[in-house]
Amino acid sequence: MHRHSHLSSRLSSRLSSSRSPAWHRAHAGPSKHRTYGYSLLELLIVVSLLATIAAVGTQVFFNNEDSVERQTQRELIMTELRSLANATRRFQQDTGYLPGQGPFPARAHSADWQQLLVQPNGPGGPIMPWQIDTGRGWNGPYLSASTEGRVTIGSNLQLDGSGNPEAGALITVFSMADSVIQERAPGTALAWQATANNIDVVRGAPILLFSNAAANANVLGCLAPCVLSFGLNGIYEQGNGDDVVLSF
Question: Could you tell me the pTM of the whole model?
Fold first, then answer.
């Protein structure tokens, strides 16, 4: 019995050693140390995907950054418009009229803010001077003189909001500028006059005041009285585009 077992073992060993290497590879179990690699095509696909993701991420980042900057600028413009609206309301509360109405002379232009800066005068002297006993009359200035200036603007723009501020004969009025800086050649429409030191003034577009109810039909979003900024592009678009309008 023992001898038979020994003989079978020797025979099995000889049969195993006589089999080819290919047979052994085919019948081998899974290797515990098998390694995996990537083909060149797979690597190129991964690199391409990573580059695409990076490009999209960069574009989204800059778009968001630009959007935040534009939103911040519009909020600043709206703050300026509220300040001018409040000043106009104080003028109305003190006098009973909006600028250019009642006993006050007609405003030269929708960009004209002079009556809120300087006591209006008529043939008989100051118009509606402040009366302490009644608490009525002009009690300005209603705006800070440091924020005003003289702007050259086209007379084609009407008090009802129709027309083009860069067309028609050029006139110069006391006005208020928004915060969006716009380079304008001296002597052209929407250019601010040089200072006493002959230094060109670079400011934003003038803010417009519409007190005429007819502006409701010509300026989108206006329920007169309203104030309007030309917006980030510096172009008057009658309340369309990126114009910023505030009714009060």
Answer: 0.73
